[in-house]
Design a protein that fits this description.
This protein is an all-alpha fold. It has helices spanning 4-7, 10-13, 15-24, 61-84, 91-97. The longest helix is centred in the C-terminal third of the chain and has 24 residues, at 61-84. It is globular. The termini are far apart.
Length: 100
């Protein structure tokens, strides 16, 4: 059971503050927050890659593919976290339609 003091705090009264605080703790997700290096992406419904593709440096395509897959996975985790805090019935919509 949550302590009454904690449940009445500003952090818990404002879910946006809670989510931002939580998401900032994951360094892999910081890039997707406003002002981050990957704060722009495409909805899954439009492009299953969400427009995330890392170009190879020095012709190392294998490394670029690993980084691309890692970023795509991190974005899916980030959006799953956000969607899990939405009202009932909106989870799939957020996963499918979310854009930056």
């Amino acid at each position: 059971m949550i302590d009454n003091t904690l449940s009445n705090s500003t952090l818990f009264r404002n879910p946006t503050n809670f989510l931002k605080s939580y998401c900032r703790q994951n360094t892999d997700w910081q890039r997707f927050l406003p002002g981050g290096t990957s704060s722009s992406w495409t909805a899954y419904a439009i492009d299953e890659t969400r427009g995330i593709s890392v170009q190879p440096v020095d012709g190392n395509q294998e490394h670029a593919d690993e980084v691309t897959n890692s970023r795509r996975s991190s974005l899916e985790d980030f959006l799953t976290c956000i969607a899990s805090m939405c009202p009932d019935g909106f989870f799939e919509t957020v996963i499918r339609e979310a854009t930056s």
